[in-house]
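Q: Could you write out the predicted structure for this multi-component system? I'm mainly interested in how the pieces pack against one another.
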Amino acid sequence: MSSQALVEIRDVNFAYDSRPILKGVNLTFPKGKVIAVMGGSGCGKTTLLQLIGGALKPSSGYVKVDGQVIHELDHKGLYHMRRRMGMLFQFGALFTDMSVYDNVAFQMREHTDLPEEIIRDLVLMKLNAVGLRGTHNLMPAELSGGMARRVALARTVALDPMLIMYDEPFAGLDPISLTVVGNLIRSLNDALGATSVVVTHDVQESLKIVDYIYFIADGVVVAEGTPAEISSSDKPFVHQFVHGEMDGPVPFHYPSSNYEQDLNLRPGR
Amino acid sequence: MKRTTLDLWVGIFVVAGLAALAVLALKVGNLSTYNMSETYQLQAHFSNIGGLKPQASIKSSGVLVGRVAQISLDPERYEAKVTMTIDKRYQFPKDTFANIMTSGLLGEQYIGLIPGGDEAFLKAGDEIKKTQSAVVLEDLISRFLYSKAEDSKQPNK
Amino acid sequence: MTIVENLRFLGHRIVNAVWRIGFASRFFILILFYSGTSFRRFQLTIKELFSSGVMSLIIILVAGTFVGMVLGLQGYETLKRYGSESALGSLVALSLVRELGPVLAALLFASRAGSAMTAEIGLMKATEQISAMEMMAINPIARVVAPRFWAGVISMPLLSALFSAMGVFGGYVVGVVLIGVDQGSFWSQMQAGVDFKHDIVNGMIKSFVFGVAVTAIALFEGYDAPPTAEGVSGATTRTVVESSLTILFLDFILTAFMFQGE
């Protein structure tokens, strides 16, 4: 953790109504790195991304991006900040009424006054980077899941953001697409000199590409370290997660009342 | 290219909609008879206007020459004061007779202008002196009934 | 116990309804506030004019013609009893211009274009396209919602005028061409009976108000829909039901205001 931090998350608490999601988490994302945030489903990983993007406000604590506290920005400041961020949504969230080309060109047309020829070159470059230059005339519905994800990736990096966030980039992909997307995350980050946050529960793929890993469970950071440290960790939670064991600190059963009582069985009768 | 066909369709839609509106206004509605750009106003007092309403037509020999602009009660004479807007193309003599009439037995009421023989014409703001009030059907019926009753009384006795 | 439960349920429903009305009003004001983009980049609105206006053309034209034909037929049957068939033109035109044109066109528009708007916005939300836009620092209300709103508001009076015009044509075909009412009295009675300001302009004001109501409801329901297949389908149904009732209710109010002085 030598280099300068781009994102700092300090003592952040967050609750939906009265249901606490995050209970005082501290994370630091240094510049130029790819960081994975892992944890079981529903542990607040996506909430974390929404806090960084300013879609939600923390109950206490703060999120600082590039030296600015996100929840203290006004509407204009927040939108200005968001222009320097890119976010890849879980299933791509491509605009279904626009072609692949228009999807990638969308932000350039909205946010810049570039002439159409330059936009065209930029779009084709971005599409080429994800290997899909040939699809620019297709509509999103004509793409496979893995291709849609790559197009969404090209759209995410359209304006060369300083921070790229990935919400479950590996969900629902076949092994080949999974490797392709994983490698793209790494190579795009290095090519753009950006910082990437990957929220995922795909351990094996992330261990291959990231620089640092945070584990979140029950709203707190339970473990962190480099991929090597995580793989060899003997913490029960990390061990269970990395090796995909069924029972452990994360129980198989949702907390419930006594099983025998629920079935109206009365032992001893 | 796709964009221009889209524009074309939207253009057709807007033009068709406006054309429909124009048809409604000119062919269906009475906008074509609104074109009395040059008008002047006349006044008249009636003891009873019956069911006359603003915007009712003013006709002379059955030709539309204007419309009723305003109806109010004259607080001094306790008579209805009717302001009429008349097309400037038509001039009427000073002794013109204004008559509230009914089109058909139960139809709309309008003002009929019957020109007299005076040499001088009415000017803007003038008043038509000779008026005849509306024929109120109830009055007519009761008058008819009374006279009928009288008729039937007299021969009997 | 059940009474208490029922009361609680009722109270919850009422609070929920008030909360929704508040949110809907805020949403409506946001649409107006962020409308600049819809006019500065009118191409966005034109695109929506195509999908809400042009795509509704066929249904409006066909429905208008048939409604006019039915009016011609029924009106003739009734007027004949009083020997005033010549008033057929006036009856057909007045019914269409004052009431049936604006109301029926708005009802058709609500089920044709309104439901489509709700489904579109609801699905964009369900597939996170709206969130994605927000994360790209693009205001989805300005970029997606407001152009649809203005397209609907512009389309509605035009569609209603087309409906009425086609209706008059349908009434003419049945009354004059098929039944044989005198052509001259058909048109002249119509022109004598229909006042431009009183009837046509008021009818256009009605359809403008309906256009605002229908599109605002459709867009709100889409934006408020739970991001699931079930949520979107429920929202689409609610759009049609709510906007139909709103149209009829507003029609009563507007008619009471416009034609009370007769």
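A: Regarding packing and overall arrangement: Residues 90 and 191 of chain C are 7 Å apart (CA to CA).
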